[in-house]
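#structure-requests
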Amino acid sequence: MNPLAQNRSKTRSWVFVFIMFIIAFALGFAIRGNGSKTENVQVQEDTGSEAQIKFWTCSMHPQIQRPGPGQCPLCGMDLIPVSSGSDDGKAGPREHKLSAYAMKLAEIRTAPVEKKFVTA
């Protein structure tokens, strides 16, 4: 086989692989969608609480504080509300206080610490 024909064969192989890659990417994009969420999920707070929203912040970047809802300019995540709630200030510097609704949503369970031997 002459070198020119061999070079054409390699070029055709790479073109075929490239076209198949583009087709696979397009199919994946079509099946998955364009990446934006079309459904709007909202969490509703208790209506009985007297909490008022002080500002909106990003859960990944708490230094971002906005007066209204929107998206984080750094990561694009939805901003979450920070409320003034009925915080009595009794939480220490290493404690995090959750509202009754947040505790129910988090499904946190606690148990006393026990000293036991490890069993297989």
